[in-house]
């Protein structure tokens, strides 16, 4: 018979709801462990003369009971589980001894060898808890456990670890905001739903590179190429979403930025609701904030801009279809962010200056933000029309107007990804 190593451990999931857990010490270790104990529903008694501000906030919020004093023998009476992490070695040893005598499983932050339990590195995703114990050397390599945990959780989230659900996937449509274009800037949820999709209907903008990663059985449809014959283009897209969902497919409608920022997301959600199809909305990082940020332009900055306004520039200010009150916008002091405005920027700038915005207000035009081809053209309201022409700026571009354009004095964005 194999002799178990002295570091063998038996993994288990403790169901702590309503059960007493004693935490000795209110420092960094407690701060890290308490949220999971609270989430597990434990009845927590914290014994510690002091606590970090975060631990104190948990006590203030009634998430635990805090007795402001040091450890006293008897503290572990009736406990099911204990976390011993004071900065007093003698108190830790005495509490450990009491735990052993009372058969209370106890974790020790100062001496893993002396503990009767070890805390695994844990992560949660999609209703699954991943717990990793490093059982070589009494869990003395917590970084390795954390690295394994991260690899598993990340893999499950982004779909690189295939762990299919055995419950039937609910057919329906997920309206996923894909972010501004860099494939790393989609949300974790968006990426997972994409990995689980049978059909993806994608816009021209957004993280197109992610489509190449999809397995061959996934049907990828370019929204711009859906034939619309007797329908308008948008109706044809709605119809395609409805038909694929009604065929029992898991459909992702992948959109650039956020689905509800000039993205016609609500029209699609409404059409799906009318057809009785479940629609999940996954927010995305809108280009209106992220593209300026990518070139080091903050849309607000203390002492410079207390507001930012995002406007569509797809129709000129004098166009009767325009819903934008350019005269009022010209009177604001804050930042104006214009999407879909490259073609009309000369008339937009003219309307703003005519209604009172200073002609020397700085402007930055950022084309293909967050992508390898990103570029920035600087101008003022007076010069922007000409600069956009000279530099042959093309859509997609975000135009930022306001003093925030020059907010960065020394900062230049790095390119760590
Ligand atoms: C139809 S709107 C969609 C906006 C999107 N829903 C969002 O939240 O970012 C398209 C416009 O967004 C802007 N845009 C989107 N992605 C961009 C990018 N990577 N770089 C520059 N502008 C971008 C451009 O102004 C483009 O014409």
Automatic annotation (TrEMBL):
Transmembrane regions: none
Keywords: Cobalamin biosynthesis, Lyase, Methyltransferase, Multifunctional enzyme, NAD, Oxidoreductase, Porphyrin biosynthesis, S-adenosyl-L-methionine, Transferase
Catalytic activity: precorrin-2 + NAD(+) = sirohydrochlorin + NADH + 2 H(+)
Enzyme Commission number(s) from the entry: 2.1.1.107
Associated pathway: Porphyrin-containing compound metabolism; siroheme biosynthesis; sirohydrochlorin from precorrin-2: step 1/1
Biological process, per Gene Ontology: methylation
Top-tier EC class: transferase
Keyword Methyltransferase on entry: yes
Name of the molecule in the record: Uroporphyrinogen-III C-methyltransferase
